[in-house]
Design brief:
With 237 residues, the chain is mainly alpha-helical. Helices cover 65% and strands 0% of the residues. The N and C termini lie far apart (56 Å).
Amino acid sequence: MKKERIWEIDTIRGFLILCVIISHTLYYTANILGLFRIPPLVGYVMQYGGALFVILSGLSSTLGSNSFRRGLFVFAGGMVLTVGSYAGVLLGWLSDDMIIRFGVLHLLGFAMMIAPLLKKLPSWLLCVFGLAVVVVGYWLEAQPALVETRLLFPLGLRYPGFSSGDYFPIVPHLGWFCLGIVLGRLLYREKTTRLPGVSTANPIVRFFCFCGRNSLYIFIIHLPIVGLLMMLISSQL
């Protein structure tokens, strides 16, 4: 028997992936084409709004099985973007700072793979650990490059001159994932919708649910599409 999906989680994920597309489009338009400056509030949301995506992923990890296998698949998607961004640099389409060295898919894939271990921890310990990782992570983010080695950037320890077109280091974002697990335990202990009275036949709900169910593919596909559009617009300016 096929397990029924929780529609509001798919809907929120769909809304967030559309926000990601909009934010990337704004970023490229502002920083590559130089057509306008991103307002500070919008820039703040773009910088920290990704934490919501990670929290939602942690929450979702409490609802199903095969988390390790899904994590491998998502991490592989991140590596596809890494290879693609390197190829873009070699072809002269992208600058070096646009290489995706450890983006959101790398982070989510890693977190999903270790989720079975994290879920063995009691909620209070997971909450303490998650908060500690978040605090340490944002402290590291405020520091200059701290290490000379080029091997520790996935942890948030950057080397001089480090850049990444999409950067979601394990510290602090694994902390948000842990807090998402705790939230999932609190809200979805029964693993069923909290809003049973809402009609999922509504076209708007169905659209966002579709985007949420296919968020990985949408994320991977939208990057080259947005990049190509920026190149076409740039050639006409």
